[in-house]
Amino acid sequence: MIEAVHAFGDEEGAARRLAEALNAPFHLIQTHVFPDGESLPTVAAGAGTVAIYRSLDRPDAKLMPLLLAADALRRRGVGRLILVAPYLAYLRQDMVFEPGQPLSRDVLGRLLGERFDAVVTVEPHLHRTSDLTPVFAGAPVVALSATAPLAAALAPAPPGALVVGPDGESQAWAQALAKLLSAEVFTFTKTRHGDRLVDLTLTDAAQVEGRPVVLVDDICSTGGTLVAALNALRSMGARSIDLAVAHALFDTDTEARLRAAGARRILSTDSCPHPTNAAPLATLLAQALRNL
Asked: In what order do the strands lie in the sheet with 39-42?
């Protein structure tokens, strides 16, 4: 049983929704910042099992206050400390791609795994890691799917709807969302030439013409792949294109490019605060915490 949910002020809304879903008290972590930039969080008294809500988009400014707050909660008597991090950063670097680079996944895993008894996250951006628990110093990591909240936000799907994933890595995710929406599914084949330049091909391009499309991906940051997919789908004659992403990491310029490329609606979960948030995760996260 979760005795309380603690969170920082910039994520108070989503954290309060989680506390309400758990029927648990909510406590705001107060943070003082010294002139030299050091932070000093102050937490409420705790006991038993406590959750800290901290999504790790823009992670560098968040990690040190989070670690300090975890230490403070332990010192106030918390026995079991669970991190609810709907978005986990630094997982894309899950191997050393070039000499001189770090293995960021393992650095983050040790930092958090040694301080939390469990971690709950949503749609971690993994390619070569099937289980994060060993990476997080043996602390259980529960990885949840965002498909159900997004399907609820998109429902009801119009007749003839087609769910499209932008690349092979999104195939399983697109298939799961399509099943919930009772829609067909196709996946692009992607060739990447840089952070923003990609080529996309779709073997069933003729199936797109005249149909409403839901383009889905786990993360949108620069938007390069999704802009290319939107342009391709428009050229194939899609009747309309809605874009659904789990983690909205993009800025206003990228959003403008997505809309200019043909996105009628852009929907995201509330894993990262963003104007496109339309699919709250509180119910999903609360159930996972109850299961823990």
From this structure: 39-42, 26-33, 4-8, 48-53, 78-84, 118-122, 141-144
Digit-coded pLDDT (tens) for 111-144: 999 999 999 999 998 777 788 999 999 999 999 9
Residue 150 CB partners (closer than 8 Å, separation 6+): 177, 216, 244, 246, 267, 269, 279
Q: Would you tell me how many other CB atoms lie within 10 Å of the CB of residue 186?
A: 18
Separation CA 215–CA 193 (nearest Å): 21
**For the chain, what is the largest distance between any 2 Cα atoms, rounded to a whole number of angstroms?**
62
| Arithmetic mean of pLDDT over the chain | 92
Q: Is the pLDDT higher at 97 or at 64?
A: 64
- Any catalytic annotation for residue 190? yes
Are 23 and 35 in contact, with CB atoms under 8 Å apart?
Answer: no
> Alpha helices, DSSP H only, in 24-146?
60-75, 104-113
- Taking CA atoms, 209 is separated from 104, 135, 204, 240, in Å, by 42, 45, 10, 10
pLDDT tens sequence across 213-235: 999 999 999 998 899 899 999 99
Judge if pTM exceeds 0.70: yes
Q: Which two tokens stand for residue 244?
A: 């659904």
Nearby residues of 108 by Cβ (< 8 Å), 6 or more positions away: 88, 89, 90, 91
Q: Which of 190, 247, 257, 274 is catalytic?
A: 190
Tell whether the torsion through CA atoms of 125, 129, 130 and 132 is positive or negative: negative
Instruction: Return the closest-CA partner of residue 193 out of 224, 167, 148.
Output: 224
Task: Give the separation between CA 150 and CA 7, rounded to whole angstroms.
Answer: 24
What is the secondary structure of 129-183 as a DSSP string?
A: -S-STTTTTT--EEEE-SHHHHHHHHPSPPTT-EEEESSGGGHHHHHHHHHHHT-
Give tens-digit pLDDT for 81-91: 999 999 999 99
